[in-house]
Amino acid sequence: MSKSIMERPIYRITSYIYAFFITNLYFLLLISPFIIVYYLAEFTVQNILLYYVTLIPFGPALAALLKTMDKLVIDKIIQPTADFWHYFVQNFKVSMKYWLIQWTIFVILIIDIYYANLNFSSISIIFLIFILFFLILMLYAFPILTRFEVKMKNLFVISFYSMFRYIKKTFLNASTLVAFAIIYYAFPGVFVLFFMSLLCFFLMYNLQPVFKQLQEQFLKQEE
Hints:
Elements: H1 9-30, H2 32-40, H3 48-54, H4 58-75, H5 80-90, H6 92-119, H7 124-147, H8 152-165, H9 167-186, H10 196-206, H11 208-222
């Protein structure tokens, strides 16, 4: 029996490319104020407040993209427009709350690095390590908040726990982050943002076993 058109590899590949493109487009639309500022104002401490404000939508946009890619991993097919905006609204409150905390911490650490380089350059590495730590923590926190209903305090605790409990996944996520940084170094600019949907897809694919184990632990606690 011949396969239907939806079962053929070419259709699946095309639908995946379409899903990646459309959802990435919506993500870029949501963070367009940051993209505009990126080209108009240099990223300096003097302009940090401007960058802080324009990157506020990044949190909900990233959460929507991650959850949409999570559905693509599980169901193998999505409705890019309907799903993305549905998850954007669904996770807006919690993702915005978490991102404001996380982004504020990042900005404080960036300012600390700036002044440390002016006065005590040897300690700037400490602030850089903190930034890397919170970046890796974020690679767990955002996916988790799109999958589970957790309080903000528990979100940080579970993310911190997962970093060390699933060390192989953490290393893989960190490697992905490094690869993303290398691409940015090779092709500086907002060009790398066009890979966000692929990055989110890979992260959610990589974290499926973690989600399963965390869900089993939550169920045991409820019992």
